[in-house]
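User: We ran a pulldown and think these components assemble together. Before we commit to crystallization trials, I'd like a predicted model of the whole complex to look at. Sequences follow.
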Amino acid sequence: MPELGRAALVVTLGLALYALVAGAAAARSRRRRLAASAQNALLAAFGSTAVAAAVLLAAFARDDFSFVTVMESSSRDLPLGYALSAFWGGQAGSLLLWLLLLTAYGAAAILLNRRRARDLVVWVVPVLAAVAVFFSLLLVAVASPFQSQPAPADGFGLNPSLQNPYMMAHPPFLYLGYVGLTVPFAFAMGALLAGRSDERWIVATRRWTLFAWACLGIGQLLGAHWAYEEVGWGGYFAWDPVENAALMPWLAATAFLHSVMIQEKRGMLKVWNVLLVVLAFGLSLFGTFLTRSGILNSIHSFTESSIGPWFLGFIALVCAFSLTLVFSRLPLLRARTKLESLVSREATFLYNNLLLVALTLTILWGVVWPILSEAVRGESVVVGPPYYNFFLRAFGLPLLLLMGIGPLVAWRRASLRGLLKTFAWPAGTALLAGAILLVLGAGSSVPGLVAYTFSAFVLASIALEFARGTRARRALAGGTWPRAFSDLVARNRRRYGGYVVHAAIVLLAIGIAGSSAYDTVTEAKLRPGQELAVGGYTLRYTRLTERPAANATEVRAVLEVRRGGDRLGTVEAGKNAYTVEQQVSNEVGIRSDFLRGEDLFVIAEQVEPDGSVYFRVFVKPLVNLIWLAGIVFVLGSLVTLWPDAREERRLALRYDDARVPASE
Amino acid sequence: MTALALVLAALVAVTCVVAVALPYLREPEPDDDTLVEPGEEGRRRLGLAEARDRALAALKELELDHRTGKIADEDYRSLVGPLRREAAEALKALESGPGRGD
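Assistant: Here's a predicted model for the assembly, 766 residues in total across the polymer chains.
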């Protein structure tokens, strides 16, 4: 019943408009019931959007092709899981997911803060509502997921590359990240609209920002794994604009998560922090615009796109509004403290921020330049991996080093004596690791060797931090070593959870350096019975098989794998021919060696009618550390996000002492 | 629009209208309909409480850094004094401020 979906979205639009107008009026005229009514409107908007989403999800589950969206991205043979994930496969469905998550975040943020930070929430509601108005207006008037038609016998099916388990989780996580960045943006703008200079908006949004940032990170890793398995070119990240679209807000949010600590601890960088929140939110909108407007295909498809100009207009409006507000409130945001020394923890955070923002803007330029070039000069320009890799090394390697330096440097100022003492072990470990790697032949790639040496430095500094902290905790409170360790982490969750996340980034760096700088590749056309050798492995092509699957025919070349004299089993690579979609996909064969961390990666590029196959085979050292990094990243994020009762009591005491109204 | 869709859509709309009107239905004639917000004094006190917490957190960090050997004794002594003064000043200002809130 598309009518119910359409009606629910119209109700959402009405509620969002009401929350915007009534919320702004209530905040200005300080009317309590009107403010509560506007908040209720946003809560109800989540309910009505959920109804619309349920209608669309049910249509996908029932193969109801009277919905144009369902016809365009599903089919009768499509397994149920993929049929449900086709919800966000199309433009309109993905916009509905945006709105659903936005109203869910908004409702949760209001429910959790309407008592604890009531005076601030009053101003946050119209900001959240304004974003909800934009998306609901798009869904009602421009790109409705509820366009209906007489139902055809079958749908067009789902793009084969999207028929992968990782694609069922990758977009929702990315959207949880993109949309989640609306919450810190709304609270920051709300605080400025209220004319507040305190840090309540930061306290209220700390976990929301971390959650959104963690989801965006997880979403990108899931996407990288999908590309590795499904796209079939032998890599996991290609600096594609769609990948960059998710990376940019993540980098901006990473910068914010670091710089906000300087504001909390030293009362500095207030303007910078608000600007970073605006940048992260603006980039999350820009990312959605890039992936959904059609602009990446060509400037012409953008001008023909129904939502592109709307998005661009909204992004311009958000930027103009935010920057005007920030500059009109500059006197409120003036810091009372100054950087005491260029060698201090806050200074390393500042350097980290400058590098992160520089990397973000460089990537942004790489994405925007081809679009501008085509729009202005009519020439299509390609900004490829060499551009991005250059800046990744230029900014990424110093960032990696700073991850090790930061924890070792004291706040406010560090003396040479203190630095020598704390740097001795990590620096010694790094130099030793670098020398050993050089002897082992890692000097064939200088950036790779530098990345490994810096990684050793960071890991040593993190290990040292944990060891010294645990020893100090045990000396203070006694007990066993494990108890002292868990107490240390529990009492300083952000610090030590952050170190775990740093360890994840180091694993990621080692995995990327290993798999890209030291990989081996061989290509050969083989007939059954012939062999090829690559990176210590010998592969013998034994046979070609063909079998039917749920909605495709699978053709697989079977290869026996040996290393030295050991038989390691078989690996299969081939192609899937999808019947409904009339498309063929590459299905790679991967044999992972978790002890070595490396993968044997086989692509059957071309299958000839006579049974011979053109193979491309990679050996990718340490690539599995990238996926391990994902698990460590989740662990570190959970430690950081876990509620801290002591912190809650301290904050309650703060607001009690200040006698800021905290309850109705 | 089918009849069922019409009924369900009407139900969604009515529920939402009731939710929006709820504050007025609950309190048709309240004694006071004004939002309580912190005034100048409330904001000043909040700033002081934040400064106090910042100084106390910095002291905690300094103690931890000192115990873990990241900060030498001499550096610790030069840093701890100003931090304690900052915390004490914020505490004193909070205690001696005119009134507690608005």
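The two ends of chain A are 42 Å apart (CA to CA). That may be worth checking against your pulldown data before setting up trials.

User: Thanks, that helps.
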